[in-house]
Design brief:
Radius of gyration: 22 Å
Largest sheet: 2 strands, antiparallel
Shape: globular
Order of helices and strands: HHHHHHEEEHHHHEHHHH
Helix content: over 70%
Structural class: mainly alpha
Number of strands: 4
Mean pLDDT: 87
Number of helices: 14
Distance between the termini: 42 Å
Length: 328
C-alpha cells in the first residue's frame, strides 16, 4: 500500500506540474479552481471527516474570506494584508459557530450551520453599501509574490498550487500530532475521548475554527482567481456541494478532498458533452457511488484489503476444520 500511495503522489505531481502548461487559458483556470476547492474541502474534511461535526455552513466562511480580501483591496490595501485579516476573522467566527456543536449534534447541528450560511448569504446579497449586493465587486487584482507578477493564468495557478501544498503539509503535521489523534477520538466516541483526557469542548471549537480558516484562505484565492465576486457562489447549495465533495472523496481520508474536488469541479466539465443531460448524469453517478461506496472513493483499497483478509481467515478456518476432522 505504501508503494501504491507513493505512485499516486508521483502521478499527482506529474499531472499538477506538467499538464497545465499544455492547456489553454480555460483549462488552466479549471485546474486553479480545482485547487481552490481542494483547500476549502481540506478544512471541511478536518471538521466533518476527522472531528465528526456535521457542518453545512462551509461556503459562508469561503465567502467571508473572499469578501474580506476583495473589500480591503478595493480600499487600497494589499492582498497580503487582507489575507491574514480574513484568516483571523474566519477563525473567530468559526469559534463562535462551534458553540452550537457543544449542545446539539448530527442533523440538528447541520441545520444550525445551514442557518448561519443563509444569514451570511443574506448579508452579502442585501448590504450593498458593503458587498455590492447582487452587483458584486469586480476588478479584484491578483497579488504579486516577492515582486513577481501573478496576473497570468499560469503564474497564478502555480501560486495557488504552492499554497495548496503548504496548507496540505500543515494539515498533515496537525493530523499526525496529538491534536489530530484528539480530533479522531472526538469523532469516534466523544464520551470515551473525554474519559481519556481529551477536552471535548476545546477540540470541537478548534475543529470549526481551523476548518473555517482553510475555507477563508480558499475564498481569498478564489476572489483573485475570478476577479469578480457576488453572493451566488457562497449559498447553501455551495455548502452542500462542498460536503458532497468530502463524502465522495472519503471523509477522514487525507487525500479525500483531492478526489472529491475533482469529482465536483472537473467531472461536470468532462460531462458537458451530454449537454442538457450532464447534470442528470452527474447526479446519477454520485447516487450510484454513494450506494456502492458510502465511505467514498478512497475507501476502495481498505475494502479490498478487508475482503482479502476475510478470504484468508475463511481459508484458515477451513484448513483448521479439515485438520481436526482428519485427526478424529
Amino acid at each position: 500500500m505504501k508503494k501504491l500511495h507513493l505512485a499516486g503522489l508521483v502521478l499527482a505531481a506529474v499531472v499538477m506540474l506538467g499538464v497545465p502548461p499544455l492547456l489553454k487559458s480555460y483549462g488552466i483556470y479549471l485546474f486553479s479552481y480545482w485547487l481552490v476547492f481542494i483547500i476549502a474541502t481540506m478544512g471541511l474534511n478536518l471538521t466533518a471527516g476527522y472531528a465528526g461535526q456535521k457542518s453545512l455552513g462551509h461556503a459562508a466562511f469561503f465567502g467571508i474570506g473572499a469578501y474580506t480580501v476583495a473589500i480591503l483591496m478595493q480600499a487600497g490595501l494589499s492582498f497580503w494584508v487582507g489575507l491574514p485579516i480574513a484568516m483571523l476573522g474566519c477563525f473567530v467566527i468559526g469559534l463562535a459557530i462551534g458553540f452550537p456543536a457543544l449542545r446539539v449534534q448530527s442533523i440538528y447541528l447541520a441545520f444550525a450551520t445551514l442557518g448561519f450560511n443563509t444569514a451570511v448569504w443574506l448579508v452579502m446579497r442585501n448590504e450593498e453599501w458593503l458587498t455590492g449586493g447582487t452587483f458584486g465587486i469586480n476588478n479584484i487584482a491578483r497579488p504579486s509574490f516577492f515582486g513577481l507578477s501573478l496576473d497570468s493564468h499560469l503564474a497564478y495557478y502555480y501560486f495557488v498550487l504552492g499554497m495548496t501544498m503548504l496548507l496540505a503539509a500543515l494539515l498533515w503535521r496537525l493530523l499526525r500530532s496529538p491534536w489530530g489523534k484528539a480530533f479522531t477520538a472526538l469523532r469516534d466516541n466523544p464520551i470515551r475521548a473525554e474519559s481519556l483526557g481529551v477536552h471535548v469542548q476545546a477540540y470541537t471549537l478548534l475543529s470549526f475554527a481551523i476548518g473555517a480558516v482553510y475555507a477563508g484562505i480558499a475564498g481569498a484565492l478564489f476572489a483573485s482567481l475570478v476577479q469578480f465576486i457576488e453572493p451566488a457562489p457562497f449559498s447553501v447549495g455551495a455548502s452542500i456541494m462542498m460536503y458532497l465533495m468530502v463524502v465522495v472523496g472519503g471523509p477522514g481520508y487525507f487525500f479525500g478532498p483531492v478526489v472529491g474536488a475533482a469529482v465536483g469541479v472537473l467531472l461536470p466539465e468532462w460531462l458537458r458533452f451530454a449537454q442538457a443531460w450532464y447534470l442528470f448524469v452527474f447526479g446519477a453517478a454520485v447516487i450510484v457511488l454513494m450506494l456502492w461506496l458510502p465511505d467514498g472513493l478512497l475507501s476502495i483499497p481498505d475494502k479490498l484489503r478487508a475482503k482479502r483478509m476475510a478470504r484468508e481467515a475463511s481459508a484458515q478456518r477451513s484448513a483448521a476444520a479439515a485438520q481436526l476432522g482428519a485427526r478424529t
